[in-house]
Design brief:
By secondary structure, this protein is α/β, with parallel strands linked by helices. Helix content is about 30%, strand content about 25%. Helix 2 runs parallel beside helix 4 and helix 3 packs across helix 6.
Length: about 260
């Protein structure tokens, strides 16, 4: 039986997956709540890490200590850099990188890709809801919203805060890593505040800063409602694509 570790940063992303799973077991794994379920002959472990590279790395290590994993999956939502990606589209990234303090991408680290069968299944599942499946590059930041010009050399770059934290831990035991992210915001539906300014050094949201921003700019409330709706749609689509891929017989990833 293949054992797969799935890391989601936020409960919204985990909950989207759990809504598609009828039977699962819940247990505590160190300080994390972990869900375990089976899809075909795959033993899946789902953990919610919290936001940021450090938390993602710690959660990944907890999974690796608890199970003999053959595959890791980083799943959830992300921000688009290019305007041609729609809200709810899903990007499977062949590479990942970390941005430096100037917002420039560092060296690319390779990730595994979906097998043809898994890709086609995920694509069909997304098309039913009007979304697309694309190849791209997942870029880990500290909340910075980068521009197309800054990442011009990367194919379909999407922004998130966790994958590069998982990469180093996965490499210790040679476990392949798959990144599957759905678009929750982008140039045509931007986050209505400076996300990086709302984060502290430990990748915690500064709730006081968020409240201050809302009170000072009440006009952003409709945009926040839109952002919440888009995030829910993106989390749902990431879950739909992953479950469809895992539900196919044969390899999930390319050899």
């Amino acid at each position: 039986m293949e054992t797969i570790g799935i890391i989601a940063a936020m409960s919204q992303e985990s909950d989207a997956l759990l809504r598609l799973i009828e039977q699962r077991e819940c247990s505590d794994l160190e300080t994390y709540r972990c869900y375990r379920f089976r899809i075909l002959n795959r033993d899946c472990w789902l953990i919610t890490s919290g936001m940021g590279r450090q938390r993602a790395a710690q959660a990944t290590r907890a999974l690796m200590d608890a199970a003999n994993l053959q595959l890791l999956v980083s799943v959830g939502i992300a921000g688009a850099v290019n305007a041609d990606l729609e809200i709810g589209d899903v990007v499977v990234s062949g590479n990942t990188c970390l941005t430096d303090k100037d917002g420039l991408p560092g060296p690319l680290q390779p990730l595994v890709r979906l097998s043809d069968t898994a890709w086609q299944a995920a694509e069909r599942a997304l098309q039913a809801g009007g979304a697309g499946l694309y190849s791209g590059t997942v870029v880990t930041t500290h909340g910075a919203q980068l521009t197309e010009q800054q990442l011009a050399k990367l194919a379909n770059p999407v922004l998130e805060m966790e994958t590069m934290g998982i990469v180093g831990v996965a490499a210790e035991k040679g476990i392949p890593l798959l990144s599957l992210r759905s678009i929750s915001d982008g140039p045509r539906a931007p986050i209505p505040f400076d996300l990086e300014a709302m984060m502290d050094e430990q990748d915690n949201l500064r709730k006081g800063e968020i409240i201050k921003t809302i009170l000072g700019h009440p006009g952003i409330l409709p945009q926040l409602v839109r952002m919440g709706r888009n995030s829910r749609q993106a989390a749902d689509n990431a879950a739909i694509a992953l479950i469809a891929a895992l539900s196919q017989p044969g390899p999930v990833i390319t050899p």
